[in-house]
Design a protein that fits this description.
This protein is an all-alpha fold. It is built from seven helices and two strands. It has a two-stranded antiparallel sheet. Helix 1 packs antiparallel against helix 2, helix 2 packs across helix 3 and helix 2 packs across helix 7. This is DUF6589 domain-containing protein.
Length: 170
Amino acid sequence: SDKFSGDRSLSNSIQFKQQFLLYRELTCAVKEGDTGRILEALKLLIFIFAGANKQNYTTAFMEIYCMFRYEASPSLKNAILDNWLVNTTGQPGKFLEDDHLQEHHIRLLTDMMSGNMYRDEKLHYFKSGRDFGHTAKNMINLGYKSLDGGKMHEFQANSTNRANVLRTLR
């Protein structure tokens, strides 16, 4: 194999920023109570979880997306979306997920981001050959390949089978 001559740390930083921006978009959409933006971000999360080989999350998010896109009546969609987020204060920008996971994620990211490594290592500048021994995976590309490589067909077959069973029970 050819020796990598690029800046792996810069590449990893770009991957991190891409995923962090999606996380940031989700947290802002939650705070503002914008379930439409959350559903848009959900589409990318499907690919990220598929690329990370997290099939339970991939399947769960695909089921949510397909339910909203193809199965749910407008009144069911509205009922679900109206109950995804809560605003106990009634003030703008104070919505929370109904299961309060936001605090856990913010605390986790704060712990991960503490320290001065970014500034000390000047990660925002290109430096040929720099490598800290870790290669970030492009989860969106990997997720696309996974879904295109059969996981989407598997999901469709399983969903169709469940729908057929439910149809026969009616």
